[in-house]
Design goal:
The complex is a heterodimer.
Chain A: H1 3-33, H2 38-41, H3 55-63, H4 66-98, H5 101-112, H6 116-128, H7 135-160, H8 163-171, H9 176-187, H10 189-205, H11 208-213, H12 221-231, H13 236-266
Helix pairs in contact in A: 1-13, 3-13, 4-7, 4-10, 5-7, 7-10, 7-13, 8-9, 10-13, 12-13
Chain B: H1 2-15, H2 20-27, H3 29-32, H4 35-55, E1 58-59, E2 69-70, H5 74-82, H6 86-116, H7 122-128, H8 131-134, H9 137-147, H10 154-161, H11 176-201, H12 206-213, H13 218-229, H14 231-246, H15 250-255, H16 267-276, H17 281-306
The chains are: A mainly alpha, B mainly alpha.
Chain lengths: ~270, ~300
Amino acid sequence: MSAVRLARRLGFWLLLLASLAFLLFPLVWMALGSFKTQVDFMAYPPKWRFTPTLANYEKVLGGSDFLRFMLNSMIIAAGSTLLSLLVGTPAAYGIARYRQARLGMLLLSARMAPGIAFLIPWFILFSKLRMIDTYPAVMLTHMVVVLPLVIWVLVGFFEEVPAELEEAALIDGCTRLGVLARIALPLARPGLVATAILGIISSWNNFIFSLVIAGNSTRTLPVAIFNFVSYDSLNWGGLTAASTIITLPVLIMAFFVQKHIVRGLTLGAVKG
Amino acid sequence: MATITSRHVAAAPARRRGGTLERWVDRNLPWLLPAPAVATMLLLMVFPLLYTAYLSLHDWYASSVLGPRFVGVENYVQLFARDERFWPAFRTTLIFTLGSVALTVALGLGIAHLLLRAFPGRGLARTLVLLPMIATPVAMALVWMTMMSPTIGVLNWLLSCVGIPPSAWVSSPKSVIAALLLVETWMWTPMTTLICLAGLAALPDEPFESARVDGASSRQIFWHVTLPLLRATLVVAALFRTIDALKVFDIVYVMTEGGPGFASETLNLYVFQTSFKYLNLGYASALIVVFFTLIAAASALLIRVRRAAW
């Protein structure tokens, strides 16, 4: 191997490691910090070797309403995703089979529009209906991000269902709706699962809608951790432990759907 | 698709069983299928937008006992001519967006280029680079806050290791935008990386082979073959990033709330504060209409550039 090639290979690995270090450092820092005592966390220069403690996790999970907020996050993510699948699946099938480009545009505008643009009317409406701080209200608002994502990812899965199969069923006298129920849906089942996971991730991570529409009894984790900091800003151990608990579930889910993430984020503009 | 539909129509009358309702449903399926989704979106998005536009012509505080009072375009006049926070927020948003797009696209292209090569552990590396954009933004913004502590933060320690003086990060108006851009770049470079990887993987082999046969160096190939071929992909990445960066909210609200002072107040922040801190809903609605128009213009550009792909 020539010296030039060796140097080039070395450069490649250095760049790769530098990129990974940049992208992973905050996550590693968060995980490390969650096992540090207050004293270790406040040490300068930062301590890389310390006796790990579970006290932060015990405090976060045991002390406050954290588990209740986690349950809220789960209920709202599951609810908004299920509702989105319910109304989104037929729409996705329609777009895939009838090439409804105009509908695609409507979805795209939903992806582009700033969430804040809808918040004032929702706030007024839900206040009048006395629905602020109720699960249905928060779920509905989360659907604004979840529904377009669900539809667009499902379109991709329905397009992969072989047209010949559906054609054969139609010739045998099956209705279009029957084809959807008996052929397209069973074949797209793995896609439905992946789509559901993507929907859950985007609802779980949502902040601005929950910040306005959710109150004390429906508060989700992102809002809860934000409030936590306002009254306990120096408890970094607790903060990183809570961040780890919030983030870990979505990171794990992402492993199973990584192939579909680009498609979901760009609404099919990029086929991952 | 067209052939399937026509064949389906031709074959249907002979064999189709079932009642009239079932046949009616089957005939009207092209609009029945998307109807629930369209109704949901109209209710959740189109109606609120129209109401916001209506409210933007009114003066109304949510805390007031009186209803909205019609003031015509007064809100808009004030916004463009007399608002001391609008134009700085506009400027901050533009600077932030330009910085975010440039940094995430350049880094994303670079990292995608690295991940395109075959090396042991590539699959794992491709998974790991995704994580920043999946991790809950609010939680990660708070973790960055601990890293950016001016006195005992790990980032200043890292700087001191390479002999750079410490930074005040988000606590100084001078460095706050750069600090937020660092977090934004960290969070969204994975997205541009993925887009670029998809684009690079779809490129044909022949141009690269002939360039290599002609004796081009890898640098020449990158600038004269890869980049021109990847132009459409880069445009998509840049435009998606533009739209998302214009809307930046979570990290700014969590890390600075627009401060120190108003140094990092973006349009989305200003709209949010006007709406839900000052409860000035009429004026906030006018701000939203302007903000929305700005993003719609960026989106229209995206759709025009990428129409062929949809």
